[in-house]
Amino acid sequence: MSHSPAERPALAYVLLTLTTLFWAGNALIARALHTEVPPATLAFLRWSVAALLLLPFAWRQLAASWRLLLKDWVSLVVLSILGVSTFNTLLYQAAHTTTATHIALIQTAMPAMIVLLSWAVYRETVSRHQTLGVLLAIGGAVVVVVHGRLERLLHLDLVAGDLWMLLAALVYALYSVNLRRAPRVPPLAFLSASFIVGAAALAPLFALEAWTRPAPRLDTELAAAVAYVAVFPSILAYGF
Asked: Which pLDDT belongs to residue 143?
């Protein structure tokens, strides 16, 4: 479906807002399951299911684009490991020792990191509107988290999970900045290929966790959680 030039900016804002909402749900689920599902296991299940769900819609584009993907395989592998494998595993690791609120708060630093890395690596000009947008996003999240009482910031204790999440935010900023290097293929082809490569990169960690930790209980709660993280913060958010 085509959209007029006037509609496109509004559509972009809607899609980006939904993306943020889906990511918030991802943080909540990561925290809810942190005692039951190891981080690499949840990440592997998420991306494996996402790849399987997306494949029926993407296989034609994927089949038509395999030569271009193979030609630019280095970019595909690097982006997949950064944005699919590493970022989400670090986020799930963070959820083991910090709260979903802290994850969401630290995640608001990603736009600022993206802007700074774009300037540092590619010398992109940072407009006043971009700077204001980043400051408003971070400031708004801080106000919500501290319930309008900024003195609470003095009592926020950083734990290991906060540091894991800071690293995750930096990894995702690197992914976002370097998306310009993605193989020049249709979006569904790139998404499905990166999901497959990302899941494959997680397979050894998944196997290690399966060998060294108790298996998570297979029930409807876990199935619903995996379905959510596979569809909303994965297929839809990354597509948006």
From this structure: 72
- The pLDDT value recorded for residue 38 is 94
CA torsion angle 105 110 115 118 (round to 10)? 160
User: What is the SS3 string spanning 28-94?
Assistant: HHHHHCCCCCCHHHHHHHHHHHHHHHHHHHHHHHHHHHHHHHHHCHHHHHHHHHHHHHHHHHHHHHH
Nearest alpha carbon to residue 175 among 59, 69, 84: 84
What is the full DSSP assignment across 223-240?
A: HHHHHHHHIIIIIIHHH-
Segment 163-181, tens digit of pLDDT = 899 899 999 999 999 999 9
- Please give the Cα distance from 216 to 210 (Å, whole number): 9
In this structure, is the dihedral angle defined by the CA atoms of residues 196, 61, 26 and 230, taken in order, positive or negative?
negative
CA separation, residue 127 to residues 24, 134, 146, 222 (Å): 27, 11, 29, 44
* Helix (H/G/I), strand (E/B), else coil: 178: helix
Q: How far apart are CA 236 and CA 50, in angstroms?
A: 10
* Contacts of 230 by beta carbon, 8 Å cutoff, 6+ apart: 45, 46, 47, 49, 50, 53
- pTM of the entire predicted model: 0.85
Per-chain mean pLDDT for the chain: 88
Q: 91 near 26, Cβ under 8 Å?
A: yes
Amino acid at 199: A
Cα dihedral 21, 24, 28, 34 sign: positive
